[in-house]
Amino acid sequence: MKLFYSVVSNAVFAINLLLIFFLFVEDQVMVPEWLQAVGRMHPMLLHLPIGFLLLLALLPFVKKHLPEPSFYQMHLFVLALGSITAALTALMGFFLARESGYNGELVDQHKWAGIVLSWLTYGLFVWLKGQQKVSRLFQFGLAANILVLLIAGHLGAGITHGEDFVLAPLQNEKPAITAATPVYEALIVPVFQQKCFSCHNESKAKGGLVMTDIKKFRKGGDTGVPFTAGDHAESLLIERLELPLETEEHMPPEGKPQLTEAEIDLLRNWIAQGADMTIPIRDLPDDSPLKLLAMEQIQAAQAELEVAYDFAPASTAVIEELNIPFRTVTPIAQGSPALRAAIFIRETYEKEFLADLLKVRDQLVDLKLDHLPIEDDELEVIRKFHRLEKLNLNNTDLSGKGLEVLADCGELRSLSLSGLPVDTSITATLRGLPRLEELFIWNTALDSVGIRALIHAFPAIDIQSGYQPEAKELLQLSPPVVKRMDNLEGREEIHLKHNFPGAVIRYTVDGSEPDSTDAPIYEGPIAPSQYAVVKARAFRENWLGSEQVTATFFPKSIPIREAKLLTSPNQKYTGSGAPGLIDGKKGFANNFQSPFWIGFRKEAFEALFYPEDPAIPISTITLSYLQNIGSYIMTPMNIEVWGGPDAGNLRLIRKFNPQLPEKYLPNEVRGLDIRIPASTFACYKIVARPLPSLPAWHQGKGDPSWVFLDEVYFYNDASQALIPEGTEGISSLNNTGAASK
């Protein structure tokens, strides 16, 4: 062992001298790429000296079980390992700190603490080697060494996770969110703190971007300014967030906590409204999504302060079971038994999503159901949540009738009914809610006279009615709601609806734009037997016409018995595998990470399809694919269709090169139709190849594109889309997955 200890001693001494030298010439040190890779091992190696030094601190507890020579040799061996790993860790840390993005006082302090720790550990090793015993004085030296270790570790955690990372849980006092709090501070900063600040702070500015300082954040980093106020589509911040996870430019990097779709949508709204970092919540327009979210934050903060719940919590297993991609169930505060639930995405909503929440009816105090197709019969479920304090039913499909049953929710303090056709009959509901403190009734059938009557009748309730226009002022209607937005099954129909009384819906199915005079008036369900691209607008006298809503519907496919993938999708975007291509479940354009999408990049999509009845002629095959150009998800470069009696005897029956986009376009779910000669094969193979190199106009020029698919449809002459002979058509759904709103 003498040779081992001699080598360790000399090596550590040499490394420590090198560290001192590097400190004096730090600005002149250029680290080659291969050494940069070594430097990036610093976070991995640093756990070794920590472990060895802490092990030394524990060895005295087993002293009585060991002979003195063995006790000494164990100390010397562990300290030798601690000394060499501490020196190597410090050296790797120096190399890592030479990369761009590491600067500031915290980095310098961590650097000095690491070097001091390396020298102290080396000195302790040399001293112990000469003493030939473990003395009390050695134990004091070891304690001082561990103290420096803790200081270095605390400073390192500050660089990696942000300053005060270790002590943050003990700092319980948080600034109260009020109407005077800036929107940026109330809503945006908490997202950045959790997901961004650890890599973009004064000490660790990855890509040259500092987000912890407003001025530096606005200035941007090495690749430019992070956002364009008023235009989230042209903002680098949103672009990086929406890139596929494995893309190098995606932020946050793979392995770091990712932003949720709700958080990304929050940032989109903030940028769209000007990315103002100083405007207080109270100065936002009443109909601003940001104001609604901010008010929810205020109410939640007040609830945490004012309410102490003494009922039993729900089991962790039940809460985990209830959390699915389209529904979240979380405690309203850490350690609280009270739960908050929210259901998302109108197009995927099923009544079971609400009914399943009855498993936590005794703990649920906050329920968010806005913009869902909630109908009157589901009030019977909602009334069973007897501890409910906050209920959001904004822009649902409720008729406004039958709300009196909410009297069973006797604890209700906040009720949101905006966008519903409620009228003065709401008074009966309010009389049954003695604890109600606030009511939101924006954009309802109540006029200013009715609202004033409500305010007079219920002075204890804070009634928020939004902006009330002057008698001669024209406001714009909201778009109609398309109720059938999944692929059509059998004779299912397209329903258009508008909650505003007196609104008339006009629509077209021929691709033309609906106007207020010539377009047909919607009087009942539309039952398409082929592709239907429905465009609709709402009109009413003394109101501006609504924005257009466009919905593309896929008719029922010829039944497919089985689908098999011949190539493997990217492991991060496997969807539901081959069965997901024929299950009728659609994906959404702004969420390519949903379980409905299957993604390919470096190899082609190849799959086999077996019709249930091969005798039915097939003359059109439709691929439902995603267009999300900013995320490198493009139209396939080319498509092949093969057919035959079985997988071993296929022949090429059609090869097709779709028209590729030549500029950035909105995110859409699109239908790509491939005409083939009427065929009765028992087996079909479809090949769709992604672009090997994105075009020069794309930000990722030279990189391969992605192909994302969610469904493949097969049609015969009686059911196919109307496509001129010899041509192919592309239809699309907008970023809701079915209809623009």
UniProtKB/TrEMBL annotation:
Keyword Kinase appears in the UniProt entry: no
Family matches, as SUPFAM superfamilies: Cytochrome c (SSF46626), RNI-like (SSF52047)
Cytochrome c domain residues: 183-275
Protein keywords: Heme, Iron, Isomerase, Membrane, Metal-binding, Transmembrane, Transmembrane helix
UniProt-listed InterPro entries: Cyt_c-like_dom, Cyt_c-like_dom_sf, Cyt_c_Planctomycete-type, DUF2231_TM, Fn3_assoc_repeat, LRR_dom_sf
UniProt GO MF annotations: electron transfer activity; heme binding; isomerase activity; metal ion binding
UniProt-listed Pfam families: DUF2231, Fn3_assoc, PSCyt1
Keyword set includes Zinc: no
Protein name in the entry: Peptidylprolyl isomerase
Species this protein is from: Flavilitoribacter nigricans (strain ATCC 23147 / DSM 23189 / NBRC 102662 / NCIMB 1420 / SS-2) (Lewinella nigricans)
